[in-house]
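About this split. The held-out portion is used to measure sequence recovery: a designer receives only the structure tokens and must propose an amino acid at every position. Recovery is the fraction of positions where the proposal matches the reference. Here is one held-out target exactly as it appears in the evaluation file.
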């Protein structure tokens, strides 16, 4: 019964995407990207190709799995990398990523699509990142005895796997040869549903990724010119709900410099930011040399954020005033920057732990920004302690990539 409902859900999802596609850009991209996809795959992938397949939901999961992907590419050069995305927000940004040989959307999760996809790709190993679970693909991979790994998994008690109605979700977990989780809590939850032998704590590969970015930091000349020697707040991955709380502080401190990098850079969202933050200029206009005295720079491109945090005195991470919760706090913490975010962060263990060690602070209203930010600008002992705590926390958590690659080597899941 549960499988029948799942199949119905997939059909209804495809139908809904088709209906709204003429009016919704993301839905349109979702459909167009999958048009004739299997035929394109068949033309691209040769029967003799040895494939390692990585699947990510979107851009964040790609960045999380990227260290493992790149290490496999280096250690096992005989294999070609097949990278798939579910979401347009991942595929459209990384469709030209040089580290993968083949990059596609994942066809909708039907039994026939799964069979056809695997008939063409014939992967030697399959690695899903964090929390993507598609029944027909996982079942078909398992049926063909292809090594199947979940990397950097994170589990919570409120997920379907641990509910009375979650039998199909539990079945999907049983298809994995190895479930590599971030923490003890995830391992214990899986143990409680009798998944024990193949569950290992290897940590979170995002720590390795942000450390690699910081160690290979490339300066941004225009950002340096904007910041000069001023106190700077970098607000990254912001949404309208964040603006409602943050803009009071921003507009009340014209002597400070602010870099606002909204999560969504659609025309509508960028125009909204321009209305909210009055003394602002778009990055695309700033680099053209537009005259004027502006203390707020609005980033209207994708790809710079992980480097922008390097220029902050303090960094604010968006998402914490919305239901989904705070975005990636590690991209700022890796530079030893005190991190601030809204009250919705409990789903993300790194956000919880960063507060516990003193490297981050949470605010729940506009008035609290003054309380948190102003002492930081004095750069006294509290600032230094928070900076060190953030820096140390990230580096103490590195090593997940090595642990995963060691497992692949020891179990001979890939051979050169």
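Reference sequence for scoring:
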């Amino acid at each position: 019964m549960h499988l029948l409902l799942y199949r119905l859900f997939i059909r209804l999802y495809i139908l809904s995407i088709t209906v709204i596609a003429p009016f919704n850009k993301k839905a349109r991209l979702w459909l167009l990207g999958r048009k004739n996809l299997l035929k394109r795959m068949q033309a691209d992938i040769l029967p003799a190709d040895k494939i390692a397949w990585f699947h990510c939901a979107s851009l964040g999961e790609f960045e999380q799995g990227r260290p493992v992907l790149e290490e496999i590419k280096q250690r096992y050069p005989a294999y070609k990398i097949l990278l798939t995305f579910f979401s347009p927000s991942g595929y459209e940004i990384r469709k030209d990523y040089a580290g993968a040989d083949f990059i596609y959307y994942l066809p909708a999760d039907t039994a026939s699509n799964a069979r056809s996809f695997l008939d063409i790709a014939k992967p030697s190993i399959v690695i899903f990142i964090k929390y993507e679970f598609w029944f027909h693909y996982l079942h078909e991979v398992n049926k063909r005895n292809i090594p199947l790994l979940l990397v950097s998994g994170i589990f919570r008690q409120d997920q379907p796997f641990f509910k009375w109605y979650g039998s199909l979700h539990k079945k999907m977990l049983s298809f994995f040869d190895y479930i590599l989780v971030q923490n003890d809590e995830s391992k214990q939850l899986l143990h409680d549903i009798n998944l024990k032998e193949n569950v290992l704590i290897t940590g979170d590969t995002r720590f390795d990724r942000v450390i690699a970015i910081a160690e290979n930091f490339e300066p941004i000349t225009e950002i340096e010119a904007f910041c000069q020697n001023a106190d700077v707040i970098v607000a990254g991955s912001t949404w309208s709900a964040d603006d409602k709380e943050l803009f009071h502080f921003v507009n009340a401190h014209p002597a400070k410099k602010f870099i606002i990098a909204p999560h969504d850079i659609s025309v509508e969202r960028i125009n909204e930011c321009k209305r909210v933050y009055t003394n602002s200029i778009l990055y695309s206009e700033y680099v053209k040399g537009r005259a004027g005295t502006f203390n707020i720079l609005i980033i209207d491109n994708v790809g710079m954020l992980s480097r922008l945090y390097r220029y902050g005195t303090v960094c604010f991470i968006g998402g914490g005033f919305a239901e989904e919760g705070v975005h990636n706090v590690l991209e700022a913490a890796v530079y030893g920057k005190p991190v601030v975010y809204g009250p919705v962060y409990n789903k993300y263990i790194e956000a919880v732990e960063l507060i516990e060690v003193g490297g981050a602070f949470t605010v729940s209203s506009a008035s609290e920004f003054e309380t948190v930010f102003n002492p930081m600008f004095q750069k006294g002992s509290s600032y230094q302690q928070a900076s060190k705590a953030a820096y140390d926390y990230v580096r103490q958590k590195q090593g997940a990539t090595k642990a995963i690659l060691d497992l692949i080597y020891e179990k001979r899941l890939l051979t050169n």
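Annotator remark: The chain has two domains: 2-203+399-410, 218-396.
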